[in-house]
């Protein structure tokens, strides 16, 4: 299985992810040796507690720098563009000005929220994307308080065509019992489209996806694991249609 990671903070010095070019290269080598062929370099954008609106020019410079470092290291891992866009009231304006980057320049855009965000504002933000022709990829909904209280909320997003991306760390129980419980509730009901690393370093929150692939294969099915970690991520990068996971549930 050629793994594809659609959510990874691998670009150095842009957010709370890789702190140096050396760390970024270590992350890429770890992912490649573990079976990952492609990583979307999804730096945080618009987070009030970090750099705010990330300059596309700065982003492009860091991506080019990492490309060069990977070539020097002999790492064939492919990097594609993307941002993890933090939903704020300014989101519609940023979208209109095209100040944010979708996944591999497709219609799919990775969106995150405050953990304690109100469901009403979540819906407003998601509609801001769809109204402009984008398809939201909801980053780690299992970590949001509202979803942990009422996971059926994700079923509503699912019906509206929003893409649901779960984190490997929550599935493996590394980010709290509530997040793990919610992630597995969604997985067992076929309410997840993609699993990604959301890696921030080469150690604790690393980009290795082999463990979660094996866990999903054993606990659910190998076909379902392939859908979440290869097939649907590839379809997103190709700007194609997503395969719904319902047929894999219960195998």
Topology summary:
Elements: E1 3-8, H1 21-33, E2 36-45, H2 56-73, E3 78-86, H3 91-96, E4 108-112, H4 119-130, E5 135-139, H5 145-149, H6 152-159, E6 163-167, H7 168-171, H8 177-188, E7 194-196, H9 210-219, H10 222-237
Parallel strand pairs: 1-2, 2-3, 3-4, 4-5, 5-6, 6-7
Helix pairs in contact: 1-2, 9-10
Please state the average pLDDT score. 95
- Secondary-structure element series: EHEHEHEHEHHEHHEHH
The Rg value, from CA coordinates, equals 17 Å
Number of helices: 10
Percent of residues in helices comes to 40-55%
Q: Can you summarize the main beta sheet?
A: 7 strands, parallel
**Outline, from the CA principal axes?**
globular
Could you give the count of β-strands? 7
- In terms of per-residue confidence, which ranges show pLDDT below 50 for 5 or more consecutive residues? none
What fraction of the residues are assigned to beta strands by DSSP? 15-25%
What is the structural class?
alpha/beta
Quote the distance from N terminus to C terminus: 19 Å
Kindly report the spatial arrangement of strands forming the biggest sheet: 1-2-3-4-5-6-7
Structure write-up:
A seven-stranded parallel sheet has the order 1-2-3-4-5-6-7. The longest helix has 18 residues, at 56-73. The protein contains ten helices and seven strands. The protein has helices at residues 21-33, 56-73, 91-96, 119-130, 145-149, 152-159, 168-171, 177-188, 210-219, 222-237, and strands at residues 3-8, 36-45, 78-86, 108-112, 135-139, 163-167, 194-196. The chain is globular and about 45 Å long. α2 (56-73) links the parallel β2 and β3. By secondary structure, it is α/β, with parallel strands linked by helices.
């Amino acid at each position: 299985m050629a793994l594809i990671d659609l959510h990874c903070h691998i670009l150095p010095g842009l957010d709370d992810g890789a702190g140096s070019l050396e760390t970024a290269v270590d992350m890429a080598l770890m992912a490649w040796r573990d079976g990952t062929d492609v990583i979307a370099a999804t730096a945080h954008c618009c987070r009030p507690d970090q750099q705010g609106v990330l300059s596309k020019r700065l982003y492009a410079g860091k991506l080019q720098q990492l490309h060069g470092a990977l070539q020097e290291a002999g790492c064939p891992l492919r990097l594609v563009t993307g941002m993890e866009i933090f939903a704020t009231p300014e989101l519609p304006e940023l979208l209109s000005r095209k100040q944010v980057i979708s996944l591999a320049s497709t219609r799919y855009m990775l969106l995150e929220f405050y953990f304690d965000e109100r469901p009403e504002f979540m819906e407003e933000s998601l509609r801001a994307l769809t109204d402009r022709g984008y398809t939201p990829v909801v980053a780690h909904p299992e970590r949001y308080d509202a979803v942990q209280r009422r996971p059926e909320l994700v079923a509503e997003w699912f019906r509206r065509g929003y893409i649901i991306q779960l984190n490997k760390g929550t599935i493996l129980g590394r980010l709290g019992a509530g997040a793990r419980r919610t992630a597995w509730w969604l997985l067992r009901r076929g309410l997840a489209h993609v699993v990604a690393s959301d890696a921030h370093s080469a150690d604790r929150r690393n980009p290795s996806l082999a463990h979660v692939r094996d866990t999903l294969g054993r606990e659910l099915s190998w076909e379902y694991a392939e859908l979440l970690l290869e097939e649907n991520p590839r379809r997103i990068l190709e700007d194609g249609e997503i395969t719904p996971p319902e047929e894999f549930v219960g195998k």
